[in-house]
Amino acid sequence: MRLLEERIAKDGRILPGDVLKLDSFLNYQIDVDLLMECAAEWYTMFKNEGITKILTIEASGIALACVCAQYFKVPVIYAKKSGFCNLPTDMLCSKIISYTHGRTYDIMVPKKFLEPNDKVLIVDDFISNGSTMKGLISIVEKSGATVVGAGVAVEKTYLKGADELRDKGYRIESLARIKSLDPLRGVEFT
Amino acid sequence: MRLLEERIAKDGRILPGDVLKLDSFLNYQIDVDLLMECAAEWYTMFKNEGITKILTIEASGIALACVCAQYFKVPVIYAKKSGFCNLPTDMLCSKIISYTHGRTYDIMVPKKFLEPNDKVLIVDDFISNGSTMKGLISIVEKSGATVVGAGVAVEKTYLKGADELRDKGYRIESLARIKSLDPLRGVEFT
Lengths: 190, 190
Prior knowledge:
The structure is a homodimer. By secondary structure, chain A is of the alpha/beta class. Chain A is built from 5 helices and 11 strands, in the order H-E-E-E-H-E-H-E-E-E-E-H-E-H-E-E. Chain A has helices at 2-11, 32-46, 61-72, 131-143, 161-167; strands spanning 13-15, 19-21, 29-30, 53-57, 76-82, 91-97, 104-110, 119-127, 146-156, 172-182, 186-189. Chain A starts with a helix and ends with a strand.
């Protein structure tokens, strides 16, 4: 999606540790018009799939998911991050390793919000090594619901997280695909 | 706002410790249509005030703020919660005490996202003792920007946080005003 790539090239900041900061339009400060354009793309791709719920993860994913929900007319659910899953009888839990922070933590969603007949679109801002996405997929599948696919704003293609999931048959639709990130050369898209 | 009050009466759960759980439509699972109705109310109230930014706090405030932004056509900024403010030269920080958890923590926003000529609408889901709202107001005022007012979904009127701020001249517009919360009698609105 050219609009998103142009914005990343213009306003993204590359920091040490393979970090791409998009804090002027995607996290911290949010350009909701740009998010609407992203949501419109995913709506075109998934509108005939019978989506019943949109799942994301706090915090920045909530913005994307709420904007998507206005196209799909379905509820949003967001997973919370926690040190540990302390109510396993009521909760669907999964362990993830943050690519940015290197920390392991549990993510969770109350069981009551996902049912076996749900068809779920997962939405998130980034996919790097895919740990968060795998965790969200695992939560949906533990509930018996179906993962229809995922809409991701930014994919780091060199980290293979999305491709590994595609190889397993999941439909991962990213809108800006970054093949390299270098403090001197900037961002290169595929 | 009758629609929000009816939903709270129907789906809210009252837990020990003066906690009102609205996790089936406001946190965890989000009914974006209901949030649009809330945003429409605040837009009617504040549309002639020249709002340039909407400020909220992670995580659940992000949903309300992003929906509001579609009426006001301005960027959203959200404050992050942290154990401590570790970049005070780049950050606007404020200390708050969570009413629900009793914990003290810093909230912060990068200085670059608020400028002296900004006119800010603050949006949040709850106001109880007002600590979070005071923290958000303090962040705006430290930047030199103007707090035009605040839109809050649910006010616990018996805790006086909103009234204290009104007494100081702030415009706090809440959509459901709860005067008592009792596990047996349920929720009473003013």
